[in-house]
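Morning F.,

Quick status update on the modeling queue. The single chain you submitted on Monday has been processed. Sequence for confirmation:
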Amino acid sequence: MKSTRPAKTTATTKTTAPLAKKRAVTGELFGKENFKWMLIGVAVLILGFLLMAGGGSDDPNVFNADEVYSTRRITIAPIIILLGLAIEIYAIFRQPKSTPGTE
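Structure tokens below.
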């Protein structure tokens, strides 16, 4: 016995979405200014970590709470590290200034 299937009909509709303007990317992804800001951010991060370092004791049986919990280590150094991270974010998202005639 032969089964009969209904014929498939396909209607093709063409929809076109407006094309977004693509920004032409030429050259490097980051410019000289971006790298300068990245190096500044890395230097600030290193400074923050250096400020946080230390506070150890030569004798493992002695705990110097004033040295470990000093304002420099628990307040100033983390703020400087966060500032360094903010500089890094700025350096990544910074757009180079366009010069006349290169648009």
